[in-house]
Amino acid sequence: MAARAYMMFANGTMTGQQYIDEVLLPHVRLFRGAAGDKFVFMDDNAACHRTLAVQDCLDSEGIQRLV
């Protein structure tokens, strides 16, 4: 099975809302749509990745996070 990885880097700090607006919605949602049901999202456990707003966004988009 072939797999692809896509990495994004940010300079400085990022809030949970910035993460949603700048990464999750424009990029992760797009890749999830292309990958289909087998898509699993992995992050690096940074503080902005673990906010309740981010978890709510992932849940509402049906995105499964690797924990």
From TrEMBL:
Listed name of the protein: Tc1-like transposase DDE domain-containing protein
A molecular function GO annotation: nucleic acid binding
